[in-house]
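TODO from last week: model cellulase.
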Amino acid sequence: MICLSLLLLLGLVAVGLSQQPGTIVDEYHPPLPIQACDSNGCVTEDTKFVMGPSRRYLYSVADNGQTGCRTSDGGFDPVLCPDGLTCAENCALIGITQQQYDEWYGTTTVGSSLSFRWVTEATVGADGYLLATDDRYKVFRMKNREFAFDVDMSQLPCGMNGAIYFVEMEEDGGMASYPSNKAGAAYGLGSCDAQCKHDLPFYAGQVNVEGYAEEGVCCFEFDLWEANAWAASYTTHGCSSEGYYLCTGLECGDGDDRYNGVCDKDGCGYNSFAMNEHFFYGANDSYVVDTRRPFTVVTQFITNDGTDNGDVIQAKRIYVQDGVVIENSHVNYPGLENYNSVSDGFCNDYAAFTGGMNHFEEVGGMKVTSDALGRGVMIAFSLWADYGSHMLWLDGPFPPDSDPTEPGHLNGPCSADSGDPNDLIANYPDSTITFSNIKYGTIGSTFSRK
Ligand SMILES: *[C@@H]1O[C@H](CO)[C@@H](O)[C@H](O)[C@H]1NC(C)=O
């Protein structure tokens, strides 16, 4: 989060454009309208997209952008950035023009759709957030509500992950909480997730000049969609902490302390293939949801009493393709066949069945998911590949050398040697995901059951 002397930056933009054309750039936010729905229908909201800060040029505010704050080896200029706060004072994040969004960052909006291209001249992968206005994120309060979007997964091979997820960031990107953060949501700052990362480029009003900060940045995360053409999952990652939370020590759940942290890093998720239903989701005629064509993904947050004040006890998944409503597949393991959604019952029974850890329950189960969805969450988007585990936790055998006949180890049909990001960059640079027609509203309001 953080940083940047945006006020200074704005001053420079106002004064500087005529003096320094091309060096300091006004931030453009690609329009990405969504729809808010209820039983009377849907109304359009003029929301926008903003790219996150990790791929942005960081430059010295003292000389109108002539000097970068980073060194060529990826470190930081020792004079401008002796520490994170000083760096935040001395350096500004560059804005991105409409043309750069498209050409450099492979991020394009058309009508109500958002596309990410995997490899462009300037970068690999993409990420960003949904803005309500130019300097505030769109906040979603999801108890007793549903969230829907159309997606085209046909151009995402094994190993890729096109994701749309809720995170409990701060609405202004952290400007009020951390006064040294002068750029805020307008520059995509304020990121946090349930992995309690120590290596975010910006956090808590400072630039992460150390690379690995002592504090980790935690918050509630609900992955609505992590998927490619061969596997899909949705996962809740609750945290016993509230909101944007800086962890220290054990709380961060680093390494061997994974199950001692404030957030559930594994999460409780639902992936049809991993639940032993091998012909539900995929890219040929064998599958119920055929990822060669676009489809709609609906996630419903059902409360115990059917009201907005109840507790969310179930996160339900429904697909719609070619006008046909498709209920989520059921678990295909003995004793668990009644489950086809995320709930306390599913998470606890599945953990018991596989003998896995149940950090989901330890951090507070569905109740903490419900509380965070009630307080309000932001939407994040990303397209990425996985240097650590080649995305096999999503679409193949994981760990790759585990016994694939053991429940919980086979997550999709992709092979153990698939998903190396270098291979994906070399052989699938044109991989693309397109999200469109984002809608949210009361249960049943975003799609037709005909
Ligand atoms: C679809 O793909 C799966 C996984 O590769 C394969 O097992 C299956 O035979 C294919 N079905 C058809 C009809 O091609």
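Done. Helices lie at 6-16, 84-90, 98-103, 344-354, 359-362, 365-375, 392-395, 421-427.
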